[in-house]
Amino acid sequence: MRRPPGAATRGRARARPSHAGVPSWLSATLNFCSRCGQALDYGPIDGEERDRLSCPVCGFIAYVNPRLVVTSLPVTEGGEVILLRRGIEPGYGLWAQPGGFLEVDETAHDGAIRETLEETGLQVEPTRIVGLYSRPQAAIVVVTFEARIVGGEIRTGSEALEIVPFGPAEIPWAGIAFRTSTWALRDWVRQTRPDLAALVDDTPEPDA
Ligand SMILES: [Zn+2]
Description:
Elements: H1 11-15, H2 24-27, E1 41-43, E2 52-54, E3 61-62, E4 67-75, E5 81-86, E6 95-96, E7 99-101, H3 108-120, E8 122-135, E9 140-152, E10 160-166, H4 179-192, H5 197-201
The structure holds zinc ion.
Protein backbone atom coordinates (compact mmCIF):
# COMPACT_ATOMS: atom_id res chain seq x y z
CA MET A 1 0.00 0.00 0.00
CA ARG A 2 1.49 3.27 -1.08
CA ARG A 3 -0.46 5.64 1.15
CA PRO A 4 -1.60 5.50 4.75
CA PRO A 5 -5.34 4.75 5.15
CA GLY A 6 -7.40 7.88 4.82
CA ALA A 7 -4.71 9.88 3.08
CA ALA A 8 -6.16 12.12 0.43
CA THR A 9 -5.57 10.87 -3.06
CA ARG A 10 -6.48 12.03 -6.49
CA GLY A 11 -7.07 9.69 -9.34
CA ARG A 12 -4.10 10.17 -11.55
CA ALA A 13 -1.43 9.85 -8.96
CA ARG A 14 -3.07 6.71 -7.59
CA ALA A 15 -3.61 5.17 -11.00
CA ARG A 16 -0.07 5.81 -12.22
CA PRO A 17 2.44 4.92 -9.55
CA SER A 18 5.27 5.00 -12.10
CA HIS A 19 5.74 8.35 -13.78
CA ALA A 20 7.04 8.58 -17.30
CA GLY A 21 10.81 8.57 -17.37
CA VAL A 22 11.18 8.22 -13.62
CA PRO A 23 12.58 4.85 -12.49
CA SER A 24 9.90 2.95 -10.53
CA TRP A 25 12.09 2.67 -7.40
CA LEU A 26 12.35 6.45 -7.39
CA SER A 27 8.70 7.24 -8.14
CA ALA A 28 7.78 4.93 -5.24
CA THR A 29 9.38 7.51 -2.92
CA LEU A 30 7.49 10.47 -4.38
CA ASN A 31 3.96 10.36 -2.96
CA PHE A 32 3.37 13.52 -0.97
CA CYS A 33 4.07 17.20 -1.26
CA SER A 34 7.26 18.00 0.65
CA ARG A 35 5.94 21.49 1.33
CA CYS A 36 2.40 20.80 2.64
CA GLY A 37 1.94 17.03 2.87
CA GLN A 38 -0.88 16.68 0.36
CA ALA A 39 -0.86 13.67 -2.01
CA LEU A 40 0.82 14.62 -5.28
CA ASP A 41 -0.89 14.54 -8.66
CA TYR A 42 0.80 13.45 -11.87
CA GLY A 43 -0.16 15.05 -15.14
CA PRO A 44 0.05 18.09 -17.40
CA ILE A 45 0.82 21.48 -15.88
CA ASP A 46 0.51 24.88 -17.54
CA GLY A 47 3.86 26.09 -18.77
CA GLU A 48 5.56 22.69 -18.47
CA GLU A 49 6.50 20.68 -21.53
CA ARG A 50 6.05 17.28 -19.92
CA ASP A 51 3.78 15.70 -17.34
CA ARG A 52 4.99 16.30 -13.82
CA LEU A 53 4.21 15.59 -10.20
CA SER A 54 2.61 18.52 -8.48
CA CYS A 55 0.62 19.44 -5.42
CA PRO A 56 -3.10 20.18 -6.04
CA VAL A 57 -3.26 22.30 -2.88
CA CYS A 58 -0.19 24.53 -2.82
CA GLY A 59 0.98 24.22 -6.43
CA PHE A 60 4.44 22.92 -5.58
CA ILE A 61 6.00 21.09 -8.53
CA ALA A 62 8.11 18.08 -7.54
CA TYR A 63 10.80 18.08 -10.21
CA VAL A 64 12.67 14.81 -10.42
CA ASN A 65 16.25 15.20 -11.54
CA PRO A 66 19.29 12.94 -11.53
CA ARG A 67 21.86 13.30 -8.78
CA LEU A 68 25.53 13.89 -9.40
CA VAL A 69 27.99 11.23 -8.25
CA VAL A 70 31.53 12.55 -7.90
CA THR A 71 34.34 10.03 -8.29
CA SER A 72 38.09 9.98 -8.72
CA LEU A 73 40.71 7.76 -10.27
CA PRO A 74 43.70 8.36 -7.98
CA VAL A 75 46.85 7.63 -9.94
CA THR A 76 50.13 6.64 -8.29
CA GLU A 77 53.53 7.98 -9.36
CA GLY A 78 54.02 4.68 -11.17
CA GLY A 79 50.89 5.24 -13.27
CA GLU A 80 48.66 2.75 -11.44
CA VAL A 81 45.04 3.52 -10.67
CA ILE A 82 43.72 2.99 -7.15
CA LEU A 83 40.49 0.98 -6.95
CA LEU A 84 38.62 -0.27 -3.92
CA ARG A 85 36.68 -3.46 -3.35
CA ARG A 86 33.34 -2.29 -2.05
CA GLY A 87 32.33 -3.12 1.49
CA ILE A 88 28.76 -1.91 1.05
CA GLU A 89 25.87 -2.47 -1.31
CA PRO A 90 25.31 -1.87 -4.13
CA GLY A 91 28.20 -3.82 -5.57
CA TYR A 92 29.43 -5.42 -2.35
CA GLY A 93 32.70 -7.28 -2.99
CA LEU A 94 33.19 -5.74 -6.44
CA TRP A 95 35.68 -3.13 -7.59
CA ALA A 96 35.00 0.56 -8.17
CA GLN A 97 36.71 3.91 -7.96
CA PRO A 98 36.16 6.01 -4.82
CA GLY A 99 33.16 8.30 -5.05
CA GLY A 100 29.72 9.20 -3.81
CA PHE A 101 26.87 11.69 -3.97
CA LEU A 102 27.79 15.33 -4.18
CA GLU A 103 26.59 17.34 -1.18
CA VAL A 104 24.50 20.40 -1.92
CA ASP A 105 27.02 22.83 -0.41
CA GLU A 106 30.22 21.69 -2.10
CA THR A 107 31.75 21.87 -5.55
CA ALA A 108 32.19 18.73 -7.67
CA HIS A 109 35.95 19.11 -7.28
CA ASP A 110 35.70 19.28 -3.48
CA GLY A 111 33.19 16.43 -3.36
CA ALA A 112 35.55 14.13 -5.24
CA ILE A 113 38.36 15.01 -2.80
CA ARG A 114 36.10 14.36 0.23
CA GLU A 115 34.74 11.04 -1.02
CA THR A 116 38.20 9.78 -1.95
CA LEU A 117 39.56 10.67 1.49
CA GLU A 118 36.58 9.05 3.25
CA GLU A 119 36.81 5.80 1.33
CA THR A 120 40.56 5.33 0.85
CA GLY A 121 42.43 7.58 3.30
CA LEU A 122 44.15 9.25 0.36
CA GLN A 123 44.33 12.99 -0.09
CA VAL A 124 43.98 13.72 -3.80
CA GLU A 125 44.01 16.67 -6.12
CA PRO A 126 41.76 16.22 -9.16
CA THR A 127 43.71 17.12 -12.29
CA ARG A 128 41.25 16.64 -15.14
CA ILE A 129 37.91 15.12 -16.04
CA VAL A 130 38.17 11.64 -17.52
CA GLY A 131 34.48 11.59 -18.46
CA LEU A 132 30.86 12.24 -17.59
CA TYR A 133 28.53 9.23 -17.57
CA SER A 134 24.72 9.23 -17.52
CA ARG A 135 22.73 6.34 -16.09
CA PRO A 136 19.03 7.32 -16.27
CA GLN A 137 17.98 3.92 -14.87
CA ALA A 138 19.78 4.80 -11.66
CA ALA A 139 18.85 8.50 -11.89
CA ILE A 140 22.51 9.51 -11.66
CA VAL A 141 25.20 11.31 -13.61
CA VAL A 142 28.72 10.28 -12.68
CA VAL A 143 31.69 12.56 -13.14
CA THR A 144 35.10 10.92 -12.94
CA PHE A 145 38.22 12.95 -12.29
CA GLU A 146 41.74 11.73 -12.72
CA ALA A 147 43.53 12.70 -9.52
CA ARG A 148 47.06 13.09 -8.23
CA ILE A 149 47.79 11.61 -4.80
CA VAL A 150 49.12 14.41 -2.61
CA GLY A 151 48.99 12.87 0.86
CA GLY A 152 47.29 10.53 3.27
CA GLU A 153 47.71 6.81 3.82
CA ILE A 154 45.70 4.01 2.26
CA ARG A 155 43.31 2.56 4.82
CA THR A 156 40.38 0.23 4.42
CA GLY A 157 37.15 0.79 6.33
CA SER A 158 33.46 -0.02 6.31
CA GLU A 159 33.18 1.13 2.70
CA ALA A 160 36.29 -0.57 1.33
CA LEU A 161 37.34 -4.19 1.96
CA GLU A 162 40.56 -3.77 -0.02
CA ILE A 163 42.29 -0.86 -1.74
CA VAL A 164 44.67 -1.85 -4.51
CA PRO A 165 46.67 -0.07 -7.23
CA PHE A 166 46.22 -1.59 -10.68
CA GLY A 167 48.33 -1.00 -13.77
CA PRO A 168 46.36 -0.07 -16.90
CA ALA A 169 46.78 -3.65 -18.18
CA GLU A 170 45.76 -5.25 -14.87
CA ILE A 171 42.32 -3.77 -14.20
CA PRO A 172 39.95 -6.51 -12.93
CA TRP A 173 37.34 -5.97 -15.64
CA ALA A 174 35.21 -9.01 -14.76
CA GLY A 175 34.85 -7.81 -11.18
CA ILE A 176 33.84 -4.18 -11.67
CA ALA A 177 30.71 -3.10 -9.76
CA PHE A 178 29.10 -0.56 -12.08
CA ARG A 179 28.82 0.20 -15.77
CA THR A 180 29.80 3.78 -15.10
CA SER A 181 33.04 2.52 -13.50
CA THR A 182 33.75 0.31 -16.49
CA TRP A 183 33.11 3.23 -18.84
CA ALA A 184 35.37 5.55 -16.84
CA LEU A 185 38.18 3.00 -16.60
CA ARG A 186 37.98 2.23 -20.31
CA ASP A 187 38.22 5.95 -21.09
CA TRP A 188 41.11 6.37 -18.67
CA VAL A 189 43.06 3.52 -20.29
CA ARG A 190 42.31 4.85 -23.79
CA GLN A 191 43.44 8.34 -22.78
CA THR A 192 46.56 7.39 -20.85
CA ARG A 193 47.67 4.25 -22.70
CA PRO A 194 46.41 4.40 -26.30
CA ASP A 195 48.53 1.35 -27.04
CA LEU A 196 46.19 -0.65 -24.79
CA ALA A 197 42.96 0.74 -26.27
CA ALA A 198 42.16 -2.42 -28.22
CA LEU A 199 42.43 -4.38 -24.99
CA VAL A 200 39.60 -2.52 -23.27
CA ASP A 201 37.09 -2.44 -26.14
CA ASP A 202 35.77 -5.91 -25.41
CA THR A 203 35.83 -5.79 -21.63
CA PRO A 204 32.65 -7.10 -19.96
CA GLU A 205 30.00 -4.67 -18.79
CA PRO A 206 28.28 -5.15 -15.44
CA ASP A 207 24.46 -5.09 -15.18
CA ALA A 208 24.42 -2.44 -12.47
ZN1 LIG B 1 1.65 21.15 -1.33
